[in-house]
Design brief:
Blueprint: H1 5-10, H2 16-20, E1 26-29, E2 41-54, E3 57-64, E4 69-75, H3 80-85, E5 91-97, E6 99-101, E7 104-106, E8 111-112, E9 119-122, H4 129-139, H5 142-147, H6 152-162, E10 171-172, E11 175-176, H7 178-199, H8 214-218, H9 226-239, E12 247-252, H10 258-269, E13 274-277, H11 281-294, E14 301-305, E15 308-310, E16 318-321, E17 336-339, H12 347-357, E18 371-376, H13 382-388, E19 393-397, E20 406-411, H14 416-428, E21 432-437, H15 451-461, E22 465-467, H16 475-485, E23 488-492, E24 504-510, H17 517-524, E25 534-539, H18 546-553, H19 557-566, H20 593-602
Parallel strand pairs: 12-18, 12-19, 13-16, 13-17, 14-16, 17-18, 20-25, 21-23, 21-24, 22-23, 24-25
Antiparallel strand pairs: 1-9, 2-3, 2-5, 3-4, 5-8, 6-7, 10-11, 14-15
Helix pairs in contact: 6-7, 7-20, 9-10, 13-20
Bound molecules: adenosine-5'-diphosphate (ADP) and magnesium ion (MG).
Amino acid sequence: MEEAKPLLKKLKIYSLLDLALIVPVSYSDTTISKEINPGKIHTLDARVSAVKSHNGKLMVTFFLPNFNQSIQSMFFRVTPYHYQTFAMGSEHIIQGKVELFRNNLQMNQPKSIREAGKITPKYKSVLKQEDIRTLMRTYLSEKSLIDKGLLPQEAKSLMALHFPDTLDRIYLEGNYRPEILQVLKIIEAFNHIQKLSGKKIIHPAVEALKGDISDFVKQLPFELTDEQKQVIKVIGSDLGSRSKAAKRMIVGDVGSGKTMVILASAMMAIPHKSILMAPTSLLAIQLHEEAVKHLPKTVKVALVMQGKEEGDYLEADFIIGTHALLYKEDLPRAVLVMVDEQHRFGTTQRQMLESIASWEGENGDHEKRAHFLQFSATPIPRTQAMMNSALLDVSLITKTPFEKKITTEVIGKSHFPALLSHIKEEIAQNHQVLIVYPLVEESETIDYQSLAESRGFWESRFDNVYVTHGKDKHKEEVLMDFRKQGDILLATTVVEVGISLPRLTLIVIVGAERLGLATLHQLRGRVGRLGLESWCYLFTRNETNKRLEAFKKTTNGFDIASLDLKFRDGGDILDGTMQSGQKFKWLDMGEDEEIVAMAKRRVKN
Ligand code: ADP
Ligand code: MG
């Protein structure tokens, strides 16, 4: 594709398959019709058998030799050209929509076309039709497509789309034939995955890590789940490699027990150093507490935050901190770098973090990297995970250590008194309640009360009501105090309560239909973290919402991620948490798991 390179780049065509996937949006078909179906466009051999002029209109009768019958045509805007062209006895190939009028065939304003039996593809492109057709003719062939990894049958289907003999091979009742659509989906997935894996860079590791985790595992107060064990095992083999620095993302629902995986990984790094970064001080503190509690006492753990430090990070085996870590000039080199809740870091912070993981070699080798593990609580659809894994390794933790007993209910105004008494019951049992409002201040555009408007109501009826929101400078303190002694927390969705609130058993989400399912799922994940029976009330003015009904039925984050895709058009107004990533033209990321898996297997690594 050398000579056409600048042009192709402009069209965002980087591979032969990119080009092949620009398929015609329609075709002009001049194949002579074999039968007549009123209501459809036809191309017919015809001979003018009568011409009449009437009120400035021209009425032509054509005889159709193939059908031994006649068809009437009316021309409305008549020019001398029409009289000339449709002279008595002249022969034509006419094209237009055939209709039945009082049992007579009609084709108004037919075109007289020059050449029959041609199917010409029409592309949607900034290029001239002729130019894009030339591109296709030049580069696409069964052989060139097979050379790019397509199966012969797939290559044939794509060729049929670009250079059709008959449209029957392509369409069935106006839609793509299932087998054609299937091919487009597979090739789209295959092409995407192939490109991603082309971007994957493999760096040698600084060290092969083989630390023993058995002491750590033995003294845990519980047995690790099968999935935890499995992920730890995979990480073990990642970290054990010197030729390849690990680059893995571990995705697991809130409460799926990722911290244990983090601690096990830190154990494997011993006697070398590892670093763990968390998005907030609360989370860093919590991780530090858990590390101190669960790791053997011989492991030196340090905490680094802005204005607060614990332990000597220069000496520590395991350094836990917030982004304050990024500004420590004397931060020791670590052979393992981890990020918790990576979805909550901005791009710049992620890049800075990666720079901690890259070692500038002592003797000019810039190649080596620390092993790098990212943990995320934003479930992505399995299809997305499979695709991403072409670029970096992905592990999923799909189950929580204990079955969460959460009842989800969609409620409206009429349920409010019942809700109030339920809230009182929970508080009476020393449980906590979280009420999430769509907005901080009153708004004209949203038909729900804001945090500011409702605050008074709760404060006048309950004790120990805490209030915070995303822009609140003191939110971490408020959350800490609430965790200790609060009954009710009023907050907005932007407050990411990453810390665990073990006594939280009831959450009310006001205006739930305005939120994406991924966000609702994150919010619902706050309750019942330690297995206490819990409730999630979705308060809405639209109680017959299909999305909310579907959401009610499952608590599995990966299923919800797929549902979220399915309901995408339902309007995820406030949702910024889903990494929807690439938009696909034919692939349905919610449904086409099999296809993505198939495409994945075919990309040779
Ligand atoms: P995540 O970080 O994935 O949201 P955590 O690591 O905070 O989840 O774990 C949630 C809770 O489950 C914690 O209280 C943790 O101690 C507990 N936990 C983790 N693994 C297990 C297990 N295998 N069995 C029982 N409880 C576990
Ligand atoms: Mg966690």
